[in-house]
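To the wet lab folks,

You asked to see what we're planning to order before we commit. Fair enough. Below is the target structure as tokens, and below that is the sequence we designed to fit it. If anything looks off to you, flag it before the synthesis order goes out.
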């Protein structure tokens, strides 16, 4: 019967190479979409997890027979799970009213689990998990874009010449683009046009966009309205 605390060199190489392959496949998908954690990050996480799992299981075989020594093959693996959590948190960004990087953080966490599985010798679950991760990242992304309506709230800050701009023109732009108006705020500015001595007016418009891609389209239409001096979209 083989010693469960010993692994030969061939199996060591197979596990390390397989972890690089599986982690690289997931990382390639993230790299292709220009995410912060891409090919190299995912590959390194998977390889490192695999190596630590191997070390946890087989790295202390010489101490098995020593008195008062108790080995726990899962001890290093548990620390890997905690450590990778900090790495994943670094890919999550909060920008304004949106949070990005959650999917990439989750993919790093799953790649870590794949690496641990490969290091422990569970090849089939590791390969199947990597394939399912790719299907989720690629396939569900298509489903979300095609069938799920991502509505997002944003604010347009318009600086206008009050005597020229009509609210009806702004409302017609929003209606034409299928945008829901949430809130409008008018603020008179102390700045004035030197030629006409008419005070500028700030119009802050909060809307709900049916698709984030409409942000630039609507901003461009606002910018071409008569009397609009500048447009800032947030």
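Sequence we intend to order:
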């Amino acid at each position: 019967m083989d010693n469960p605390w010993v692994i030969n060199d061939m199996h060591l190489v197979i596990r390390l190479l397989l972890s690089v392959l599986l982690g690289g496949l997931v990382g390639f998908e993230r790299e292709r979409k220009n995410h912060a954690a891409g090919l190299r990050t995912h590959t390194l996480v998977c390889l490192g997890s695999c190596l630590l799992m191997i070390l946890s299981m087989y790295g202390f075989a010489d101490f098995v027979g020593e008195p008062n020594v108790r080995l726990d093959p899962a001890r290093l693996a548990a620390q890997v799970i905690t450590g990778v959590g900090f790495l994943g948190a670094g890919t999550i960004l909060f920008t304004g009213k949106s949070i990005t990087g959650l999917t990439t953080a989750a993919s790093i966490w799953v790649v870590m689990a794949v690496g641990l599985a490969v290091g422990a010798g569970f090849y089939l679950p590791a390969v199947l998990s990597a394939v399912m991760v790719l299907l989720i990242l690629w396939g569900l992304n298509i489903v979300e874009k095609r069938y799920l309506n991502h509505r997002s709230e944003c604010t347009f800050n318009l600086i206008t010449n009050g005597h020229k701009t009509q609210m009806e023109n702004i409302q017609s732009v929003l209606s034409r683009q299928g945008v829901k108006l949430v809130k409008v705020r008018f603020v008179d500015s102390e700045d004035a046009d030197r030629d006409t001595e008419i005070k500028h007016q700030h119009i802050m418009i909060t809307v709900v966009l049916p698709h984030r891609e409409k942000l630039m389209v609507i901003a461009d239409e606002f910018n071409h309205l008569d009397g609009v001096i500048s447009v800032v979209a947030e």
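Structural context that might help your review: The chain is about 50% helix and 20% strand. The helical segments are 9-32, 39-58, 75-89, 102-119, 123-147, 167-176, 214-223.

Thanks,
Computational group
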